[in-house]
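Ticket #4471: structure export looks truncated?
Reporter: QA, pipeline team
Priority: medium

Steps to reproduce: submit the single chain below to the structure queue and open the exported record.
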Amino acid sequence: MSENRRFETKVIHSGEVVPRHQGAVVTPIYQSAMFEYSGETSYHDVKYIRLNNTPNHTELHTKLASLEGGEGALVTASGMAAISTTLLTVLKPGDHLLAQNCLYGGTRALVTGDLADMGIEFDFIDAGDPASWESCLRPNTKAIYVESMTNPLLEVGDLEAVPRFAKAHGLTSLIDNTFPSPYNFKPLEVGYDISLHSATKYLNGHSDIVAGAVVSSAARIEYITHRLNHLGGTLDPHAAFLLNRGVKTLALRMVRHNASALQLAQALHGEPKVARVNYPGLPSHPAHERSKRLFKGFSGMISFELKGGLAAAERFIHATTLPVVAPSLGSVETLITRPAVTSHAGLDPEERRGLGISDGLIRVSVGIEACEDIVQDFAAALSCC
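Actual output as written to the record:
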């Protein structure tokens, strides 16, 4: 398919199987563990479900690469499978990683626990202060890892400086692009080597699968795929089918997520009981100007704190009627949670406080319901605090 087509067209048509199987407009679920041998000479080319090369996989790979401007892509069994497999491809024992200091709790635990146990060293950096990064470099530094918008504080680092720094020092640059989604931000166009996603979230958008994705150059995707083939974090064909279906509505959903989250953030920002709102679309956000330059939209993620602290946060959450109180994000329904007991529960309280994640911090994934209903529901819940 022509790469000149617009995003809204690519999400529908890129990667679709041609000619259509038996004329089916929607690609069927190829629920087969193995496929007939047809002369492949490489183990990684044999058609086998664990090798990520069923028709459901390859269709997604082409589509996701097209959306972010990559040469290749790879889907995995979860976002953490994408992150861990990629880091274990880029790094080996004795190597050193620079990682943003505020990361998703699972990623932070992987870096500080599992990778450290394997002899991979790390230093955390302030992604908004490029002048401080060079002092953390070591002779064995191999990669730098950041998030487009951090989970859960919605920080936006100097994302343009990261790939420049990486190229200047011979590092691989990696970015978790889950929060903005490819609709709002395309990291490879800014110069990143590898873009990662928890496809469970915005890419799928319907709270019904767990999946991950990696987008990069063809050569890097080949290496990462070979590592995944050995580690086994393969996406099931049925989940791949659902992910492909979800991606087709990504552009439509992100327009609503972007607009509704901005409206809700503005409403919360004006509430006297709210101490702080974290949303890059607000002029009060420290990286607002940078975010306007980088992102097409500011996504559907908001976090905020109430002046009443933890007690007020719990009263607020229980007083809402529209959001589902649940972890995860990026779905059609509005979700609400306290990161201290979900996404960052694995960090001890002192670590969370050091990162600025209070016990009373509330994270909201704004869905695609009528925004007026969401705002009214939050206003009513605030009256109970």
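Status: closed, not a bug. The export was complete when the record was re-opened. Leaving a note from the reviewer for reference: The domain at 7-247 is CATH 3.40.640.10 (Aspartate Aminotransferase; domain 2).
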